[in-house]
Amino acid sequence: MKYKIIISLMALLLTTFSCSDLLTPTPVDLITNDQVLKDANSARVVLTSAYRDLANLGAPKIIAGDLTSDNLIHNGTFTQYREISNKDMSASNGSATALWGVIYSMSYVVNFLYEGLPNIDISQSDYDEITAAASFLRAYAYFVGAYTYGGLPIVTSTVVADNRLVARASFEETLDFIESELLYALDKLPEESFNSGDVTNGAVKALLARFYLYKQNWTEAEKYATDVIEGNGTKAYILEEKFENAITDFSTESILEIVYSANDNPGTSTDFSINNLFVGRREIIPSTEMVLALQNDGGSRNIMLEFDGKNVRGSDNGWTIVRYGPFENIQLIRLAEMYLVRAEARAQQDKIFGATSAEADINVIRQRAGVPLIQGISKNQMLSAIENERRMELCFEGHRWFDLVRTGRDQQVMDEFTNNWTEKDRLWPVPLREISNNPSLKNAQNPGY
Amino acid sequence: MNRILLLLFLCTFATLQLVAQVEEITITGTVTGERGDALPGVNIFIKNTTIGTISEFDGKYSISIPSDAQFIVFSYIGFLTIEEPINNRNIIDVVLKEDTKQLEEIVVTGYSSQKKADVIGSISSIDPKVVQDMPIIGLDQALQGQVSGVSVTQSSGTPGGGIMVRIRGNSSISSANQPLYIVDGIPIRDGGLSTRSFGGQNDNALSTINPNDIESMEILKDASAKAIYGSRAANGVVIITTKRGKIDTPTTFDIDIQRGIINPTNSVDVLDASQLLQLQREALFNAGEDPNDAGIPGVTDGVNTNWQDEVMRQAIVQQYQLSTRGGSEKTQFYLSAAYRDEEGVMLNNKFSRATFATNIDHKATNRLSFGLNLNLGRTKNNRVKGDNFLDGVYNAAITSLPYYEPYDENGKLIVPGDAGYAEIPNFNPVGQAIEPRFDTYATKMLGGIYAKYEIIPNLFFISKFNADYTSTIEDQFEPTTTAIGGWLESVQRQGYGVYSTTEYSTLLNNNVLTYSTSIGDVHDISGLVGTEFISRTYRSGSTTGILFPSDDFTYLTSSGLILDGSSYLDNSGLISFFGELNYKYKSKYLAKISARYDGSSRFGEDRKYGFFPAFSVGWRMTEEDFLSGISWLDDLKLRASYGLTGNERIGNFQYLATWGATTAYNGVPGVGPATLGNPNLGWEQNTEFDVGADLAFLSGRIQFVFDYYYNVTNNLLLNEALPYTTGFGSILGNLGEVTNEGMEFTVTTVNIDKTLHWTTQFNISANRNIVQKLATDEPQFSGYTTFTNSTHIVATGKPLGTFWGLKYLGVDPGTGDAIYYDKNNDGKLTANDGTYIGDAEPDFYGGFTNNLTYKGFDFSAFFQFSSGNQLINFGNTTLLNSGEEIKNNQSIKALERWQKEGDITSIPKYEFGNTENNRFSSRFIEDASYLRLKNVALGYSFNQEILAKLKMKKLRVYASATNIWTLTNYSGADPEVNSLDGSTTAQGLDLYTFPQVKTILVGINIGF
């Protein structure tokens, strides 16, 4: 009798726990790869993570464009920024690694969309819009990457086995890839976005203008810049009357910006928060040369700077860049840049004076900034004036280093700023971890690193 | 049990004797232990008769004996039996000595227990008495230095902080290496309680359990001992048994009170204001800048703050415990209540704990017994940020510039916005300590019920239902007087509050059948089979708020903006079947087979189940005829074991390719890739081989235990680094292999056994850890980022915790610049010049304890040592930075810097902005071997006469001192630190880690 009781008791105990429940709990707030794409809505949700990568690109791009040049200097404790500031980057530099990582994490999302979308029920217009936005975002990331690292590994699938071995394409191949992505996206996106911050056709055209300017294809650069300025196939962008409004969130001249909200906890994270780097920690401050240049400029553009005497000690000149508030957006492309792109493209085509000239374009920007207009100068003087104008108008938006390198003026300009500038500083190093983990990159480090 | 039978037996026969004998005398006396404590329940009988009695609760006895009796025998489990000649005395007081041979001692081996003589696995036992005089917070601290093969490092001197316990080395690279802790059959949560990083230092979930409620601890070290725990056993198992009542013992009460003072062991020597200013001027001058232009004054303005003194204090520790235990034949109980309150040496740092324990056992019928264990604990930890924390306290106190002050001339704290506020990078360390609120409250409930039923003689069915529940609430606020709440613009300078909760619960049911029998006095067979179900749940939630109306409002209810809300749930489970078979032939040849079959939810469909068998054999040579003639040899046992164990401690759902939610962008929610799946993900498998010998001779005066082991862990779960071009940083796979080979040796001796009793225990262990295989030929890196990648490297042929960097060759006497080894001989200093520059693994480590008793006095001294281990003094990359930046104070060693041509020194010249001279190199690696007098204690137990007057059973007073003396060449604050608490690959790094503390205690134990 007793045995029976014991045995039935044991049986009861054993059945209390269902094996399948215990060993296969349902993941919470995680879905497996095959569950991700179902319809157009779920594809947009995936696209959001490509936008997040764009947001993560904001700060590293400013670091690259301004700290690598003569605009910013390091003033804090992080080695990665000190190395960039001292023009003494190592291949393990954290910023170089972070920027590279963001490019490819975005690439994975875009490729995932391209691979998955054909298998789901989605209208052609939704397909075009989503893939055009995805291609544009990837093109933007590769564009920043190409001018930061040189030729990049081009990744167009999600297959890990292939992507871990992919070699660097040449610089030209990389540019061709970016161009084809942008041309694919062209005229597939709405002129006006439903949600401010989304990519529009204006952004595609504006990036094409910048792309051709960098590539020294002056006619194409002028053409696309004109489209954006005149609103051909784009929303009608209007130059803000005051410079201080041009750098606020969603100004009338904004073409593309990274949107931050209070939900992006500023906390104490430093990697991707430009406000923390500039204002919070003052890890990075304007160089004295930059401060003087903005002061001497005379116009309204020095509102981006603030001085506090009690900060002055050692290398600290006491100046702070107050341009980016805690949750403020980062402007990626705005109308003023298009005027300067066209001015440069026109100057290169010897259109110096007149109604459709470099002089007309540069003066639109100078007038708004409240600085004297330029009149009657030579082509070379004009190119030099445009270089300077870009520095003033677009400072702390991540342009300077790219401008100096693409025009070949880097050595001359940087020699006045530092003794450390060499040929190698025209590019950042390919991250050491990439070279260590991808045999195809074994001997592919940029010269000098 | 035997004692009761014996007693009944004796009583019955004593009555019979009374009838036969007429002439008799009465003898009375008291039985005490060596510390003068009364021993109740001692068997007292007349030799070669059945006349006997047992001692009362106060150790007193009275026995009537025939007048011709010669010897009276006193015997008690765990003590040496003595035969006392009567010699016509009427009062006979005896002192029983503890039996150090302990062959009859019972050892808990997991789901069952065994006589020590029959154990053929490698199991070490700790009697918590050896640590009772020490100021230990958690049971893991009790393991330190006591047992061979177990390395214990306190990560810092912070009370309730993390402790690294490694049994026979690190067997895993990416999974946890902490052992499995089982308290009364319940696997308990270890690791940290807090979810918020405090700069590398964690708190400790084990601190929620009161170590004074522990009766015994067993450490299972080899496969034979551990395999019964299967997939969780690879890192070793610590079995903890809490105190219980004993059958037929009078109720006793114990009061233990401890109070003491705590001071830091050491400080970091830094420059004073004028030394530093001179150095900074020199650094700027060497860089071609004018120090006056750069705002560096020539002389000190009179302010010279010793920041380390400002943030530290003498702290107080106190502990009170009341416990009672006792039992009848049917019911036994143990109850205790304890409170501990320990201040940290850092301002505002305090750990307090209240615990309650209840253990009840009841025998309902001859066959059925059942019982209850319940441990409740509540801890409150007032934490301060430390180590590598932007706004930490101790780190900033070391690096703060001495020409700033914590308080202004009116004695008001200098806060953000004040003229004298130092801002980044060091802020005001005093404000950072006293202003924020970082309170962590933990609630622990550990308990369960069991029933045991004897189905037929010797066949028992035991079923247990247990739960381990740990909940943590973190209540944090940083007011506007702190760096985060009042200075950091992105937080908007109106306070910063975080409230988060976590809850871990483990529900467990196990059902075990045990059987033992003997066949014809030559074959002893015992065994068990069982099943176990474990269900684990983790829940968490956290909310952050900013924009508080003022510093009077400190809870999120008042915050103007709530950010970062989160909540989470996670389940995992384990289903197991296990068994064990022990065989003994004539007590001579021993064999054991054990195995466990585990199914875990953490692994993919094809790899869900794992089988972990072990086999061991033993030979008690002293039972052989050819050794029986050797009277001085008590025991000689040879043993060997071989088996498999596993490690399932990886995160959940790692085998699935998953996408998770990303932060919304521009108001649109998103999902992004989370992990790259690996459906073949399986167990880490540890194959272990152990041979050992146990030797005791001269009546237990000398005992040796020796073990050699060789463990191979393969299928190591390893995050194989992927190039980012894949979209991911890494993928988890079963890729690596690590071996641990080692030797352990323990010797226990009774040096003098007279009125003065002196015993020594010495243990020493050496472990060689080698990474045999990685995912690819390429090494992996971890730790902090450096010029040559990272501070630590995981490379084949090297131990875990190997350092990587430039090799420093010294200072060029001509230029004052650092010279590094140009490994690839390309004439340039690049990342490719990185090389191996040391490792954290000790050559050997151990402990050395001496115990002396003389009359009522007892004295113990416990030394701990570690040799050959190195530390990265990573703080020196800032504190001895050759002028790379001038925002931090410098080590006193900076005075030895190169200053002019021809100077021969190892410290490069100071040149502002020069990064080259401060590259991470072997310049920052130091030998961290140490010998430490961990504890010394002196006690006095009052004798029976006084106790009788006081109506007490025990009265002992003692004083004890911890960490009072250390011998080391390490130049940092403390050689026993670990900044990246819990890391396996990045061990041995000191980044302003808070040093161990010096504690001086007085205490009293009262029993009645």
Account of the 3D structure:
The complex is a heterodimer of chains A (449) and B (1008). With 449 residues, chain A is mainly α. Helix content of chain A is 51%, strand content 6%. Chain A has helices at residues 2-16, 19-23, 40-67, 79-85, 94-116, 124-149, 160-163, 171-185, 201-214, 218-230, 243-246, 274-280, 288-297, 335-348, 358-369, 379-393, 400-406, 410-415, 432-437, and strands spanning 30-32, 72-74, 254-258, 284-286, 305-307, 319-321, 330-334. Chain A has a two-stranded antiparallel sheet with strand order 2-4. Chain A has a two-stranded antiparallel ribbon with strand order 3-7. Chain A is globular, with a radius of gyration of 25 Å. Chain B is mostly beta strands. Chain B has a domain at 2-95: Immunoglobulin-like (Sandwich). Chain B has a 22-stranded antiparallel beta barrel. Chains A and B meet through helix 1, helix 2, strand 1, helix 3 and helix 4 of A and strand 25, strand 26, strand 30, strand 31 and strand 36 of B.
Radius of gyration of chain A: 25 Å
Please bin the fraction of helical residues of chain B. under 10%
CATH superfamily of the domain at 2-95 in chain B: Immunoglobulins
Give the percentage of residues in beta strands of chain A.
5-15%
Please sum up the structure shown.
Chain A has 19 helices and seven strands.
List keywords for this structure.
heterodimer; A: 449 residues; mainly alpha; two-stranded antiparallel ribbon; two-stranded antiparallel sheet; 7 strands; 6% strand; globular; B: 1008 residues; mainly beta; 22-stranded antiparallel barrel
